[in-house]
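Might you be able to review the protein record set out just below?
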Amino acid sequence: MNDFTPSTQLEDKIRAAIAVPQALPEFVNHLYTDLMHQASLKNRKALRLFYLRPAWIAFLAVITLLIGYTLIIGPQPVDAKQILARVWSVASDLQTNGIRSFEMVSETTTVADVPNGIAGTAGQPGEIRSQLHTWFQETNHWRYEIRFLDLPDREPDPRPSVTVADGKVVWSYDPEQNFLQIHDGVFGGAGKGGGPGLYGMNGGVEAVLGTASQCYDPSLIGEGEIIAGRKTYKIFLGPSKCPSVAAAAFNGPQTLWIDQETFFILRREIRDLRNEHVIYTMTVTSIHYNLEIDPGIFTFTPPEGATIFDDRTNPAETPTPPAVITATLPTPVNFIGGGTIQDTPFPPQPTPGNVIGGGIVKDGPFVFDLRLFRDPSFSQQPVATSFYSDLNGIGAYMYWFYQGSDVIGPVETYWGTLPSLNQLQSETYPSISLGSSGGRTGGILLPGGFFLSGESKTGDRIQVAIKVHTPNGDFGAILHFTLNQGANGFEPTDISVDVLPTGG
């Protein structure tokens, strides 16, 4: 058979497969007349082909309708959960979306005291405003500068805290203490340690994206709003269905504005539990993608007089070794294992101010210095992931110092809230020797917060620990405290420090 004759069944299948809206009869009649007129202008063979095959005419009519419908009405709105899934994918690996570099400036505002939900520093109503300036260049080249613009309890330091990573080494500079720490390390994915914190997503929104389908009912409520010169999707998440006990104020409804092209979060807003006040906003004020960045951005030269602590496996040569200083100890001090405080020298680690409590213990050849301190930078909605804490306005200083005479290795260090200690590996060292040290200054994770399952309530005894795993055994220390309900959420009381039990 040389000719193919479409059947009415074929026409029905074509319409069903394409699934377009029912065409108006007037439009179809008009289109049919127009097509017949054009066909009459062709040669007789062509006229016979179309005149005798009305199914082809219907097919063309349907295709024309489909194209017209798309051009006039546009594509149908995408699903909110699909958008959030794409956000997470891009945050995990920027290069999946063709992003080779970017420079971004964002501002964050947290209300420290609201009528029906508290977020911020205990007893200090007002706003905490900060700015984050971020640069990224593939692969694993980062720089971010954090400066506080307004603090409720003091005048902010105008100088930024700086973190620089070049794919092999990380520099961290604290301007208040003029202290620079250098260590081996890589920032993986879109954030430190593989998390997506550095391009504007803090710890809180990271948890939101990870639990969006279980803990929220996201809906797309707007398209096209301009943020930092970019068109956005506006997604309303609503209040959390998995509320955090540790920081209840942030369980209220929240909204995200997402770049329609790159799927970066360009704005985030959280309202209080009664949906009466905005208690948190993060807004990108400037962003540029795939630009040329000066290589000098990804290096760091400390200011004159800075104390430098080079903790790399093969540190660069320096004119003189770092001075050994004695830490200023909190009260009370719990020193276990013999010796005196004067016998315990420490490398030049900056110690925090506003210490609430803590102490020093000795376990084997290691000395551990653990403290809780107040700092409004720490919250569930921080300017950067490193400031995330389930105790708003409170951080933990946790460091170890090796005093053994033998070189040992490899050594792995862990920190976290018991019993989840081994899930949070902090650092790995091929070897350590007399005078080596390490640790972290960061937030506190509570059961029932964004990252740990379970729940926390008044009277619970919390154990935050640090452990050093060596070929000769495990050594560590625990910072104990009891949760008390304060004006701004949980407050730590009855603070003590002890040696980590064997097998901890």
The first strand starts at residue 101 and ends at 111. The mean pLDDT is 74. The chain has seven helices and 21 strands.
